[in-house]
Amino acid sequence: MAACARYSLRTQSLLRKLLCFQTSDVSTSRLGSLFVHRRHASTVNQDYDEEQSDSEDKTNHQLRYDELYPGHIPTTPFQRGLLAVGSAVMCLYNPARDDMICALGESTGHYALKNLRNKMEKDPEGRLILEEQPVINTDTIDIDYLGSLPEDTFGKAYWHFLNKHGFSPDARLPVHFIDDPDLVYVMLRYRQIHDLTHTLLGMPPNMLGEVAVKWVEAIQTGLPMCGMAALFGPLRLGPKHRQKYINTYFSWAIRCGRNSKLLVNVYFEKHWEKNMDDLRQELNVEPAPVPLVRTGQTNLS
Questions:
Q1: pLDDT tens-digit profile of 121-136?
Q2: What is the value of pTM for the model shown?
Q3: CA–CA separation, 64 vs 167, rounded Å?
């Protein structure tokens, strides 16, 4: 255990050094604001106008690259590879490390995110989401209003989910390591609807619920991080949950992922008042054989 802890610290230290990583206080609600990350310019020999011009062009290009969005941390291919390997190891060692899960998703998800964005652009609701780029946090969602909704509504079920587990929409981390500005919001949207997906599927945020949700997300998004979590997550299940997973939830999650509407194309914020059963039917979401969280008027453990 001590060896694992030492390896964890060494891995994190190496990642920080290679990526020049600094903890950012940029919130997801400020993603649209301008962020300028300046670097110290090297001294240019004034006697060589041509060399100075080339240097200025490179500097301006680098500044534009660093200004893609607030909190952006540019990486080289080598750094992304190192980040992917290091964060994957950390995720296996401690699945609760949200920052490492996010780093793994961002460092390995480029092609999956491009494909996901294309799917969103082809769907009317997905296209509207890309155009309006709604952000899910306590500035944009009235949590008290959700708590006042009838018990059988999607909004009230989400309120129950947040309150029961002590979660907040503000807890989702911003994006840092994606170098394509067109894909930043796609990753953010996927990340911010994760708890809504749990609510819709009736899955708690324990290991069994996370594995089931990750299968749905892996099938729908193609993100390598989701696939890895779905494949390796069951190794951490206890005997009781492993039996439930094998006998019940694995096949159900596969069917949900294949048959349901692409959930990243769902404008969840417009469905708070909708009956949960009606919403599931509309999205072709098969109810869990035995729901594991409270959804609507049914209270199950």
A1: 999 999 999 999 999 9
A2: 0.77
A3: 36
